[in-house]
Amino acid sequence: xxxIPIDVLKNTNRHNLGDSIDIVLFRIVRFANIERYLGERGAxxxxxxxxxxxxxxxxxxxxxxxxxxxxxxxVGLIEIVxxxxxxxxxxxxxxxxxxxxxxxxxxxxxxxxxxxxxxxxLGKKVQVRETHCAGLGNDYCQFEVKIL
Length: 148
Fold this sequence. Notes:
Distance between the termini: 29 Å
Shape: globular
CATH class: Alpha Beta
Order of helices and strands: HHHHEEHEE
Strand order of the largest sheet: 1-2-4-3
Structural class: alpha+beta
Number of strands: 4
Oligomer: single chain
Number of domains: 1
Strand content: 15-25%
CATH architecture: 2-Layer Sandwich
Radius of gyration: 15 Å
Largest sheet: 4 strands, antiparallel
């Protein structure tokens, strides 16, 4: 079936409840125990590749479009920390902001999302790696971008 376009996903038909859900419910779905079935590495790859496919599907043309999308959809507040090498921070990350330090990174979907968006913008393959995360005890997520 492939990825459902965002214009289709926006049609919620929820006249009474609206189009918003509580972040706790989002996190329950996001952190479902897929590691149990795929192992930690397999789960992280699936999350990264899913985020990348989603980021590409948005067909963003500029960083400003990505920043606006993330703010409008409450994914997080984006800041470009450095342009060479590219470093991106996400404050109030939908997946991890406020979670306790657990000694590991959590935002593989977001890393993939950034990769997909940047591949559209730059017209080049990229690899994105998270270096800071609430799971590591940080107040923000930070991602380093490697252009391939």
